[in-house]
Structure formats: C-alpha cells, structure tokens
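Re-running enoyl-[acyl-carrier-protein] reductase (NADH) to confirm reproducibility after the cluster update. Everything else is unchanged from the original entry.
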Amino acid sequence: MAASAAAGVQMVAARPCISASQGILAARVAVSRTDCMHSTTATFPKISCSWPLGSKRNGVLVKAISGESGPQGLPIDLRGKRAFIAGVADDNGYGWAIAKALAAAGAEILVGTWVPALNIFETSLRRGKFDESRKLPDGSLMDIVKVYPLDAVYDSPDDVPEDVKSNKRYAGSSNWTVKEVVESVKNDFGSIDILVHSLANGPEVTKPLLETSRRGYLTAISASSYSYVSLLQHFLPIMNPGGASISLTYIASERAIPGYGGGMSSAKAALESDTRVLAFEAGRKGKIRVNTISAGPLGSRAAKAIGFIEKMIEYSYVNAPLQKEQLADEVGNTAAFLVSSLASAITGSIVYVDNGLNTMGIAIDSPTITS
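Result of re-run:
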C-alpha cells in the first residue's frame, strides 16, 4: 500500500521487543491466614515461612512457594503458529514491531509488502540493513520465512486497471492481488493461524474533510478499512480454528483530530465498526477472534506524511496519564497477547495502547487550564 499515511500516525522506529516470557516471576506468592508454625504441615508441602517475605500484615501471612525449578508464570507461546502480516515495508513501523513480537513468541513469520516498496525492502533484508532491528530478546535474528508482493486495494486481477498493470513500479512482480496472495500462501504453507492488518493509505490525508474529494475519500476507505475485510474474507478459509486477527486503528475514529483528514478518520471509524461485525461472523464461521489496537501517535517515515506528527507526539507526552515515550514494541507485545491463547475470550474489542491518552477529556497544557 502507498506509504503516504500508512497506519495513520501509528508508526515508530521499532526497538527490540520484550516478550511476555521475559516478565516471568521467579517465584509465586501464596496468601494464607495460617500461622507460621502451620506451614510445615502436609497440607502445604512447598510453602516455607521466610521472614520478611513471610511477615504478617494485618493478620495475613504471605509465604513464598519454593522448590520448583524452571520458569513460572504465563509466557506467550506461539510456537507452531504461522502469521501473515500485511503492511511491512521497512523496519520502523508497527507491522515490523508486531512481527518481531510474534517471532519472539515462536511464530513463523510471513509478510505482505506493497509492490512498489518490495524491491527496496527485500534488498535491505538481503544486505543486512535490518539486522540490528531484527534482533530478538534472546539475541537471535527474526526470520521472515517469505515476503509476498501485495496490494490490498485489489481483490483479484480483474480489479486491476490498465494504468496500474503497466506501471513500472509493478514491473517484475506478479500474483499480488489479495486473492492471488492467499492462493500463494495456501500453495506454499497450507494454512495460517494469525492475520495482521497493518496498512493504510489516504492520498489526501493533509486536506480537511470539507476539502476532500470523493475519490480521495473512497481511496482512504478502500485502502485502510475495506482491505481488512478483503484480507480476512480471503484468508478465513485457510485459517486454522482458534486463530486470531488484528488490525491497527487510531483515536481519530472517535474524536476530532484536526489535520488528520482526507477521509482517514472515517476509514478508522469503519475499521472499528467492521472489527465488531467481523468478530461475530469470523467467530461463528471459523472460530477466529478479531480485535483492533488503537495506538497513540508515533513517528515514522510514513507517518510524517500527515505533516504534524511531531506535534501530536509532544501533545500525547504532555497530556497522557502516563508521561513517557510510547514505543512500537509496546504495540507489538499487545498484539502478541491478543493473538495468543491468553486472550482466548477476547474478540470484537478495541484495545488502547496509547499511554491512556484516550481517557482524557481536556488538555492539561491548554492555556485555559495552565492559567
């Protein structure tokens, strides 16, 4: 997809993502209202009374469970799962961060790259340009098993206009419509478990909605929201039951963000509405969960197309409940959770990963407030 507004304002230089398994506790804690002398009975064979860990607070004795070897907790385990991530064209976007998080959890990674960006992306991979950003928490490099050319604006070859077919940027590539890509994946691997939609395009994103043309508006809807419907529609028959799909949205879907124009806010609103409907339909038809992540404003080469991304990042930092830099790997880790068995009952949801900015009703840096 054209990178002029890929994922709206939702891109940032990807940093090494931290998988949930790294946050495993070394010991679990049990709470008992028994006395320390009772901890050695047969009822609690693995509980030792260790002070101050076992100190009493308001009559409650906290004891540490010991004697168990190996890691404990709830690691995200995607081993044996295969993921297709649509919308990866470089190493600094959300798609890349999600791919790294899924790979760190053990998933096999396939990506779909916008056709005009394919050659540069594959060349950069081959020459090791992305090796540093491919590093996973264990020190290994993320392995992208296969890169597929993809233009999700077109469902089948019959939909492709002649001027696109003859465009030199598409020369040398074939089988890049949604239907053809899914057929290629089926022929190569048989099935997938995870589908990620991380692409968008709004050619008139810098125009106010009142100045947006019909063509620009419909292009934004087609590239940024219907493309998800199409991808899930075509991939669903080869998705294994119990699989999951996620997309990326932005708060402009439900709040007015002046400057985020060209129909992109409408496209994100459609994407969120479609998430709920697709969750029902894909859930009933294929036992597939469907969720979307609403991420805060993050900077990337693509996001700079809107023209004020740095101001949005500063606004978020000043006004969000958590006053810190937001990283792409935070979205990647959330995606890994959502597609894992740990989120087995979560579907049709919008999950906010924005330092809490969506909860704010006023800007605390407003002159009205600061005065």
